Amino acid sequence: MLSRRSREKLELRREMESLYTSRSFGAALEQAGHWPLVRGPVQTFQINLGKVCNQACHHCHVEAGPKRTETMGRATAERILELLEQGPEVEVVDVTGGAPELNANFRYLVEGARYSGRHIIDRCNLTVLFEPGQEETAEFLAANHVEIVASLPCYQPDNVDRQRGQGVFDHSIRALQRLNDLGYGQDQSPLLLNLVFNPGGPSLPPDQKNLEARYKEELGSRFGISFHRLLTLANMPIRRFAKSLSRAGQSSAYQSLLVNHFNPATIPQLMCTSLLSVGYDGRLYDCDFNQMLEMPLIEGPETLWDLMNLQDLVGRPIATDSHCFGCTAGAGSSCGGSLA
User: Fold this and answer.
1) Which tens digits make up the pLDDT trace of 283-309?
2) SS3 string of the chain?
3) Number of domains into which the chain is organized
4) Tens digit of pLDDT for each residue in 130-140?
5) Does 149 fall in a domain?
């Protein structure tokens, strides 16, 4: 009899097979003249602090939620800071989760990364700022000049609550107003506040520039909220969103949509070519999506403790699969928004 972990892996593999199309991502790269896809200098070190979250969003590729227990320990956090000291080329420390702020080592990592001179990004769901024990988190982020990339998939309450949970929109608005009061999102302010849009279902994001203008108009006029940029991301057909597609019978249609909108112009800007992802347990991956699919590096160390220097991975091939069409469809999608 298969163990629970083995059954979960088998189920995940079947989900991915159900999304498979006759055109593989590798073949698409080769036809576009970009095979093999290799890593350049590591400029962004993305750290996933675990799967614990105060929300359980329908589109979440991490399948994070309040009942998850996976979380990064102190020894792993210490090793991350050691590697940052040895890798001066790294410019950005990108902290994600779950809700990264709920990890006991969140502030330790932020302070250590700031001390080493890195730009720090906190991928914040906004509502976490009202959780017990997080009363001073917003002030902590401002004091350490942490860029906030905040999820807000719409400027209409019904759409947000449908995707992320009842009452999330109102809490998100209150959080954004609080951040504005601290100086975040204001013109000429060094406290960067960027919002993230992702579609509510199996469709590609609209034009990022036009949608940003609409967000600024709606949030500004209705709530007095200001922010710097809007980043548009496609929903990745993995984990919780993949299961949602499967239940609705839309798996094949969505994968076909991604494949049919493959855009070679996005390839040079793919985040995996300049990013290294580390899981809560210290394992290394090419990106956060590969991490959730447990796709390890093709060549190279398995964990932080096997890696002597972040730049030792330069020039090595990147693991890809059919989900990668999600990053190259239309205008492209990355942790920094559209690519083309």
Assistant:
1) 999 999 999 999 999 978 999 999 988
2) CCCHHHHHHHHHHHHHHHCCCCCCHHHHHHHCCCCCCECCCCCEEEEECECECCCCCCCCCCCCECCCCCECCHHHHHHHHHHHHHCCCCCEEEEECCCHHHCCCHHHHHHHHHHCCCEEEEEECCHHHHCCCCCCHHHHHHHCCCEEEEECCCCCHHHHHHHHCCCHHHHHHHHHHHHHHCCCCCCCCCCCEEEEECCCCCCCCCCHHHHHHHHHHHHHHHHCCCCCEEEECCCCCCHHHHHHHHHCCCHHHHHHHHHHCECHHHHHHCHHHCEEEECCCCEEECCHHHHHCCCCCCCCCCEHHHCCCHHHHCCCECCCCHHHHHHHECCCCECCECCC
3) 1
4) 999 999 999 99
5) yes
